[in-house]
Design goal:
Dihydrodipicolinate Reductase, domain 2, binds NADPH dihydro-nicotinamide-adenine-dinucleotide phosphate, 9-stranded mixed beta sheet
């Protein structure tokens, strides 16, 4: 059916590439382009020989000219950005210059300021619309599936949704005292930032990890979870009818929190550069280099993830609550695509988002958050491509 250019070749891209190759009727031809070409070649070597034609290239995604040249030579129908949030705008610029559709999984964040928000990417709305190309923002799990779940809940189960709690539980154990399940730099920037939630039309800011709840997750059990700011809160607050409050909680074990506190106390999580032996280094980037590569956690991680959303609102004048979630098993993911569940739960929706554009189902010029699109075909695809969802019409609520 079409050609996709996948930019980045880390943990998430690895899964998305496997899934594109499984879905070769849609992904007839893919190009994997990243900073380190040897990683692209290694995955090509593993997957070559199937129906999807694979090529590779080296690209610096911070460089718009390089991106434009690559897109012009390969001529993809869609660009799937699976590099880091820092590259979102340069890749969007290249898509504009070449009139190519764009899909990503994380919103833009400037390198020197750990504050991610949609304003930079929303600024492209008019330009994408005029160019007649589509951008789908946030096609991972959270953001991503959480937005699709929300659109689905609103379409099929509610007249208005008043409260959303997004619960992201990782019950996996990789056996290391401290490691992060995806890019450590991005992960730690997110967790050490102030938390916040949306209530009655405004943001309430909280100290990092200061709001804690316990929840009993199906297939995982009881876990402590902490309120974080998360990017989909910003778009869901705008796009969900009747919303009064949205919160996001993520589980962390005590060992993780203890290590993180210690690293933070000694300054290792800072993004302010320091001088070390005559060279400028960013402590968090140095820490990243010390921590296990998330891609190496796959074979050793056991347990399950359970990620989903609890909604409360009204249907036909009556109060209603509804919980929709996916349970994913780390070892099953590893057996299938040699990756743990965190990359898997992001890489599968990334492939589906690109598929929705390639098949024309989500082609709508402009820049859109995922919950703005019709969710039904995406929901079916989740069941088909490895992330089946479950529903609970009488869930335990979070206070
Ligand atoms: P990784 O660090 O494993 O991979 C990032 C890849 O991008 C690497 O291959 C890296 O190259 C490449 N890259 C970085 N900078 C450049 C550049 N300037 N030019 C070209 N390539 C570059 O990250 P993950 O796979 O864990 O995460 C990928 C994305 O997914 C991130 O944006 C992350 O925020 C997002 N994400 C979204 C989630 C969601 O649910 N929505 C959940 C988890 C992650 P190299 O190999 O040389 O380092």
């Amino acid at each position: 059916m079409g050609k996709a250019l996948i930019i980045g070749c880390g943990g998430v891209a690895g899964v998305a590439i496997h899934k594109c190759c499984q879905n070769s009727d849609v992904f007839e031809d893919i190009m994997i382009a990243s900073r380190t070409k040897s990683k692209c070649d290694a995955i090509k070597a593993k997957l070559d020989g199937g129906k999807t034609k694979i090529s590779t290239a080296k690209v610096d995604a911070d460089n718009v000219e390089e991106l434009v040249a690559l897109i012009n030579s390969y001529k993809p129908d869609v660009v799937l950005n699976l590099a880091l949030p820092y590259q979102d705008l340069t890749i969007m610029d290249a898509c504009l210059a070449t009139k190519t559709h764009y899909v990503d999984t994380a919103n833009y964040e400037p390198l020197d300021n750990a504050k991610f928000e949609y304003k930079w990417q929303w600024d492209y709305r008019e330009r994408f619309e005029k160019a007649g190309i589509t951008a789908i923002l946030g096609s991972g799990f959270d953001p991503g599936v959480t937005g699709v779940f929300s659109a689905y809940a609103l379409k099929h189960h509610f007249d208005e949704i008043n409260y959303i709690d997004i619960l992201d539980c990782n019950g996996g154990d990789h056996g290391y005292p401290f490691a992060t399940n995806f890019n450590p730099e991005i992960n730690i920037r997110e967790i050490t930032a102030n938390g916040s939630y949306w209530e009655n039309g405004k943001w309430i800011e909280t100290k990092p990890l200061s709001i804690k709840r316990e929840y009993d997750f199906k297939a995982v059990g009881k876990k402590d979870m902490y309120l974080l700011h998360h990017e989909e809160l910003e778009s869901l607050a705008l796009n969900m009818t009747g919303i009064k409050r949205i919160r996001f909680f993520m589980t962390f074990g005590q060992s993780y929190i203890t290590h993180l506190n210690c690293l933070e106390n000694v300054g290792m999580t800072s993004i302010e550069p320091i001088m070390y032996e005559g060279k400028k280094i960013v402590p968090l980037q140095f820490l990243r280099a010390m921590l296990p590569d998330p891609a190496s956690l796959g074979p050793r991680t056991i347990g399950k993830t359970n990620i989903g959303c609890i909604y409360r609102g009204k249907k036909d004048g009556k109060d209603k609550s509804y919980y929709i979630y996916n349970i994913c098993d780390h070892q099953e993911c590893y057996r299938e695509v040699e990756s743990q569940a965190i990359s898997y739960t992001t890489g599968v929706p990334a492939m589906i988002g690109a598929m929705m554009v390639l098949t024309g189902q989500w082609v709508k010029p402009g820049v859109h958050n995922i919950e703005e699109m019709d969710p039904d075909a995406f929901m079916d695809a989740l069941n088909k491509w490895g992330l089946p969802w479950e529903e609970d019409f009488n869930p335990v609520l979070v206070d």
